[in-house]
Each structure stands twice: as C-alpha cells, then as structure tokens.
Design goal:
Elements: H1 7-18, E1 24-25, E2 30-31, H2 56-65, H3 80-93, H4 118-125, H5 137-142, H6 146-156, H7 160-167
Antiparallel strand pairs: 1-2
Helix pairs in contact: 1-3, 2-3
Length: about 170
C-alpha cells in the first residue's frame, strides 16, 4: 500500500498494527487467520482475503461492537477517524481472493457504500430533548381514559362475546 493513498494507507497501517494477530489480509501484509480450519483456534479471525466485507457500515459496526458475536474481538480497537479509515480500507480490499461462484456477485463488484457524515453522527448521538406533557387521546387512554377502559373491558375482562366463545363447547 503506497503512502500516497492517504487515509487508505493509514487504515492499512492501523489494521496491520491492531488486527494482524487474528485476521489475514494481503493488502495489509497480515496473516492472522488459521491457514487450515482444522488447526484454527477460537480467536482466529476471518480471512479477509476471501471474505467480502461490504458495505463499509458493516465493517464499522464490527469495529465498534467487537465483531458480530462479541466473543473475542475487543470493542473499539480503533475509534473515531481511525476506525473510519480501517473500515474503508477493509471494505475496499476484503474479498479480493474469493473464489468465483456461479450466481454470486463478486465482492469487488458490490458497492462499498458510504458512512454518515460527522454532522449526522453528532445529531444521532445527541441527547434526546426533555419529555413534554401531552394531552392526546393516546396519552389519556394510557392513563385510564375512555379508550383505556374500553380496551380493558373487552380484552382484560372478556366482554360478552369473549365469554361466550371462550366458555362454550360445541355439542356433537
């Protein structure tokens, strides 16, 4: 990976430093996955040479949450812009050596996708506004208003129709 690749190079370096122990990806020069399934250890991560990792949001999710099972990969092994750089690097180069399968779209032909902008992420992580008092019919029903009582009568106490159908048996 040439240094002139900017953020992609930075992602490759971070991947090599933080992910090489468990994952294989030739573009980063790492060989952490078990070469043979029979000799794999529990912490052997997926081989990204053959495993497609798209869209990029999927990779970022795995970085933030410790993979998909949460068993061995630590959460937030890289954070912030570093996590974004690693996610973009992995989603760009993963799956390059996957075998050609009939009826399956090659990884390199799938879109990488986009990540939300920093502004969108800030809004999504902002605290919710304080709760306001509402006087809608729904709110009143939840507190025992007319709609709430009607619901209780027919559902909770089994109104006339409910008693008839539930308590009668058909005669032969």
């Amino acid at each position: 990976m040439p240094r002139s690749a900017g953020a992609t190079y930075h992602g490759a370096v971070l991947f090599s430093e933080r992910c090489a122990g468990c994952h294989t990806l030739n573009s980063a020069g790492t060989h952490g996955s078990a070469p043979n399934v029979r000799t794999a250890q529990a912490n052997s991560g997926p081989n990204f040479n053959v495993r497609c990792e798209r869209p990029v949001t999927r990779v970022l999710y795995a970085i933030e949450n410790g993979g998909f099972s949460g068993a061995y990969m630590p959460q937030n092994i890289v954070v912030g812009q570093d996590a974004i750089d690693v996610a973009k690097f992995v989603s760009t180069y993963a799956g390059s050596l996957a075998p050609k399968l009939t009826g399956v779209t090659r990884c390199q032909s799938l879109p990488i996708g986009t990540l939300p902008t920093a502004t969108t992420q800030a809004i999504a992580s902002a605290p919710a506004p304080a709760a306001t008092t509402t006087t809608s019919a729904t709110a009143k029903a939840g507190k025992g208003g007319k709609a709430g009582k009607a619901g209780k009568k027919s559902a909770g106490k089994g109104g006339k129709a409910g008693k008839k159908s539930a308590g009668t048996k058909s005669k032969p």
